[in-house]
Amino acid sequence: MNATGREVDVDDRTALLREVAERAIEYLDGVDARPVGRPIEVARLRSGLGSPLPDAGMDSATVLRDLGAAAEPGLVASAGPRYFGFVIGGSLPAALAADWLTSAWDQNAAMYVVSPAAAVVEDIVAGWLVDLFGLPTGTSIGLTTGATMANFTALAAARHALLQRDDWDVERQGLFGAPEIPVVVGDEAHVTIHVALQMLGLGRERVHKVQADEQGRMRPDALREVLSGLDRPAIVCAQAGNVNTGGFDPLGPIADAVMANGGWLHVDGAFGLWAAASAALRGHLVGLEDADSWTTDAHKWLNVPYDCGIVAVRDAAAHHAAMTLGAAYYVETAGAERDPYNWVAESSRRARGFTVYAALRTLGRSGLAELIERCSAMARRFAERLAAEPGVRILNDVVLNQVLVRFESGGGDAAADDELTRNVVAAVQRDGTCWMGGTTWHGKAAMRISVSNWSTTDDDVYASVEAILRCAAEVGGLPAATATR
Ligand SMILES: *Cc1c(COP(=O)(O)O)cnc(C)c1O
Predict the structure, then answer these.
(1) I need a labelling partner for 382 at 20 to 30 A (CA). Which of 44, 212, 342, 398 fits?
(2) What CATH number labels 366-475?
């Protein structure tokens, strides 16, 4: 197919899509065997992919082949089973397949009228999510690009609701001259909470911070003290699933304190909210349903392809008021139809409901619970296996899917152990068996392991532990692994 041709050659399109599908399948079939993160020079990638934009177009199949070949060395095997960096899930086969369909269908999931199917699927998925997380009936849902925009949306709804009580219409009047809204965040709030505040005119730095405990959980006594110093209802941002420890803020006492203050409680559960789907883990979330808004990501632990975040708001009217395009182009019909764009900061948008639908429908309630529990069990296995080795210390209580590992040479020299730990992380990344990132926890360097991928197995955990111990022995002179499995 000529890129500039007006006539679509259907045979060429078919051949192109089949070829690319084959190549994608080949990639996924091989993702287990390839080095997980392969160091690559940026200059090499640039020279393989870049040149001044040519004037003449080019054959589609050649463009796609060239793109595949030149991009391949710069791909990170985060879709595979031994990527444990940040908090990054893979893609369930059904979710990936639904994503392919989503692209082929090319629906604009802005309004019911431009894609009835996308609007209805999103509506159905919204009901499933409210039910799964055990949120109050009537809670509204938006499917965003990610947790950052979910936090943004939830905090916009909070801003609306608190100012409306003072008869201030923030959507019309803006923030200049408005009554002040105090914002309270935990010491360990995710950076994207601050980014959401920065975008909403609430200020990244005018927040009141609440001390966290040794697992990074907000301390309710410290929250009560902060709130007692305020003369107005506040927006309080709590967290379910600390990005380092996986720890949960104690939502029960936090919700009580926020209720007494008359404020709005937001819970960022970008990955931790999925624990609500498991009877075994739900205990970490006692009080969850007493919050006012919630954030999570489907592209993390639900294992759908990028991008898909989820925002949930108890006060649907506040959510709608904060996000709606209003009468700008009002084509809503009888009222039974839901226009997805009223619940997110987007107009034209990807039909994200299809992948979430496919993931939840294939897993079912029990499959989702099993996925979350299995990943958490593998995180514990990582911790137990590593902790059994001399010179390896686990820094967190492994309550979910996150593990913090530190390497210590035994001399009690913190700076030397920081360096050793960073060197082990770098060696593991070079080794390619698995990929873990580095972090700093309470001033100490650590390796962070996140088990979030549906395809990870016990064998992947064992192979990764062996690689970590091998690298630690090489770079640190730590004793080599004393045992396997
Ligand atoms: C990942 C994460 C975010 C940001 O999510 P994005 O999908 O990257 O926007 C926010 N909060 C927490 C706790 C996270 O783990």
Answers:
(1) 212
(2) 3.90.1150.170
